[in-house]
Amino acid sequence: MSAPHDCAVVLQNLSLSELTALLEKIFLRHGTSTDVARVLAQNCAGAERDGAHSHGVFRIPGYVSTLQSGWVNGKAVPVVEDVASGFVRVDAGNGFAQPALAAARDLLVQKARSAGIAVLAIRNSHHFAALWPDVEPFAYEGLVALSVVNSMTCVVPHGADRPLFGTNPIAFAAPRADGDPIVFDLATSAIAHGDVQIAARNGERLPPGMGVDGLGQPTQDPKAILEGGALLPFGGHKGSALSMMVELLAAALTGGNFSFEFDWKNHPGAKTPWTGQLLIVIDPSKAAGQSFAERSQELVRQMHGVGLKRLPGDRRHHQRAKSQDQGIALDEQTLANLRALAGEN
Amino acid sequence: MSAPHDCAVVLQNLSLSELTALLEKIFLRHGTSTDVARVLAQNCAGAERDGAHSHGVFRIPGYVSTLQSGWVNGKAVPVVEDVASGFVRVDAGNGFAQPALAAARDLLVQKARSAGIAVLAIRNSHHFAALWPDVEPFAYEGLVALSVVNSMTCVVPHGADRPLFGTNPIAFAAPRADGDPIVFDLATSAIAHGDVQIAARNGERLPPGMGVDGLGQPTQDPKAILEGGALLPFGGHKGSALSMMVELLAAALTGGNFSFEFDWKNHPGAKTPWTGQLLIVIDPSKAAGQSFAERSQELVRQMHGVGLKRLPGDRRHHQRAKSQDQGIALDEQTLANLRALAGEN
Predict the structure, then answer these.
(1) N or C: which end of chain B has fewer CB within 10 A?
(2) Is the dihedral of CA A269, A273, A275, A280 positive or negative?
């Protein structure tokens, strides 16, 4: 099935399971275990399905490159440690963060439901995906989840003159009674790294205030940011403080690397930050009063009442429904590239 | 002891214990219990000592006014509920939030050290102070603490056209090896409400982007914001998402009111938001690897290395040391007003 596009790009529509199977084949062919291939393929295909293009199949060449470089262990088996009634640790073994979360997930949920709150501290891990897929599933189970992950030096702390922090996103998910969960995922940089890469690829300029060039001067050229320049934090000193908090929670509190601590120069092609990730999961049934999901629904109702058209997460949930109906549209060239990486032609 | 000032204001220096005793007398004289008077006086005098003037003695007339209005119960006895191995609730009984935290604090610390993480959900409470004094003491005990509190409708959600959220601050504290803790306290509004009040009092204009007037139009006049206008979130949609998260955590997850749910029109003079507060405390000794305090010290070292002159919290810690040395300077008129409220003249 194909559809004409206004600039003559031919689109092909794949189902989620077709895209997942294709990506799984790519991961397997580039040295991951079957478990890791399945987790990463589901994650990446889900992002593409939800219209989160900067973390969809756009990321596949980066995954392939980093696996080929020997920088990350695609066959790592995460080691889960049960530390306390509310504390789980995982050593991801220099593998990806998502399989580490998958390995610890059941224990984490069990602890959150029993203790009321639980924390998962993942270290020695590589996170190269969006962060919202890590928190959203908890909200579908009635839990509130918060996660932070640090990345790689590319953000200048507010008041400093050289980069130190990563883009260091914060993601949050909460259930609500009459609809999809409330979910957001925000980089503490003024713009996500993937969006700078996409702007550079498309030859677009960025809005002011996003980054600086190699001399530390403000620039709107995405290439100047990527080639020796750096990003700025969002919201001045406040976003910078939150980015610092992410370093402390995702690295210092997990035993992982800070964004400035790893050195991949002996692994040309390495793309994935080797850091840590923290998740906090809370069971809102322990709270006093009316059910949390009814209360969050009331907040949503009032937000619409003051003129808010779209909630955080709405666009993705809308695109998800559309993709489930019509399939996930990929242009022919992108699909051909993916098939080549999967060894299909 | 008095010192001349460049605009001929005469300053008087008080010790922390002198100022605390004076404020305690004011609270007692306006209907609080001795426990509540002690907790609030220590909190407010500590803020003044640390140079956090918008939450120091500047707040005393507001406290007096709200107590006189009958809106808050100055003699409330908090009821602590031990809900699960990581979950403590407190019904503040329509009293202040700080005595509720004080009542639950030992249990919260005990649970955090045992479970690795614990949450304190305070509801039916009034928070009229800075948020950093609630988290900083945990860091001096080697713990990591995060707190959020919602306030009263005065912030327009990004993309909406009328106010709904409160200024909804987020505070964070973490220990470090060779110095005072890393502490920040940031309103998710573009500016704190107290700072707008101080600008209005001083006849100053605000920077652009802080708020709107009663017609929803951008304004730099603090009075236009206070009289029918509203604040904006910091950092556009990202700050707005964080403010929404604060509503969910501080109200929906505690059983407290959202910022838009209370109505004080039958209590002229009421100033304090009747909402909820959430604290999360984590024991970093459960983390893998090198000690957390050594790791956070390394982050601070690197932040200074990229040219950062001042860490979040540094200014307060510097002012604290100065106040301990020289006393807390108050102008004569302010001191006379406080003494009058204490019934001393």
Answers:
(1) C
(2) negative
> Is 90 exceeded by the pLDDT of residue B111?
yes
Residues A95 and A237 in one domain: yes
Q: Are residues A114 and A169 in the same domain?
A: yes
Contact flag B123-A289 (C-beta cutoff 8 Å)? yes
Are B241 and A184 contacting, i.e. CB atoms less than 8 angstroms apart? yes
Do residues A121 and A166 both lie within one domain? yes
CATH code: domain of residue B156: 3.30.1370.60
d(CA A69, CA A77): 19
Per-residue model confidence as pLDDT tens digits over A205-224: 999 999 999 988 999 999 99
In B, which residues are within 8 Å of A284 by CB distance? Answer: 252-253
Q: Check B255 against A123: CB less than 8 A apart.
A: no
ipTM: 0.96
pLDDT at B53 over 90: no
Contacts of A234 in chain B (CB under 8 A): 235-236, 238
The whole-angstrom separation of Cα B338 and Cα B108 is 35
* In contact, A104 and A120? CB cutoff 8 Å: yes
CA pseudo-torsion sign A18, A22, A24, A25: positive
Nearest-Cα residue of chain A relative to residue B249? A144
What is the span of the domain harbouring residue A183? Answer: 76-189+233-311
In chain B, the residue whose alpha carbon lies closest to the alpha carbon of A123 is B288
Write the single-letter amino acid at B27.
F
